[in-house]
From TrEMBL:
Gene Ontology cellular component annotations, sorted alphabetically: ESCRT I complex
Organism: Lachancea mirantina
One matching Pfam family: Mvb12
InterPro entries reported for this sequence: Mvb12
Domain Multivesicular body sorting factor: residue ranges: 9-97
Domain of life: Eukaryota
Record-level GO BP terms: endosome transport via multivesicular body sorting pathway
Gene Ontology molecular function: ubiquitin binding
Protein's name in the database: LAMI_0A08240g1_1
Length: 98
């Protein structure tokens, strides 16, 4: 086979557009260009973490304060009105008549 024929066959597609038995040429797939977000500095990440930790500390302090207020209310409204012996898990036995 001549050199020109070999070059032609190398560049020819491996499909036959006139036959259903061979695969058809496929359209080119257009993929959008990937764009990665710009990286941020470590100081910005650190500042965000510091703000988040400060918010968590404020939430913890508020929770402790609310818990202390509830404990105070519970002791004042409920525990103070209980008869003696209930809170210490003592047995309340009526005195026997003599």
């Amino acid at each position: 086979m001549s050199q020109a024929a070999e070059n032609y066959l190398r560049h020819a597609g491996v499909n036959n557009p006139r036959s259903e038995l061979f695969p058809r040429a496929r359209q080119r797939l257009h993929v959008p260009e990937l764009s990665l977000p710009q990286t941020t500095d470590a100081t910005e990440h650190l500042r965000a973490w510091i703000e988040e930790c400060d918010a968590v500390l404020v939430a913890i302090a508020a929770r402790k304060e609310a818990t202390a207020q509830f404990d105070e209310w519970y002791a004042d409204k409920y525990l103070r009105r209980q008869p003696p012996g209930i809170l210490e898990s003592g047995i309340l036995a009526p005195a026997k008549r003599k």
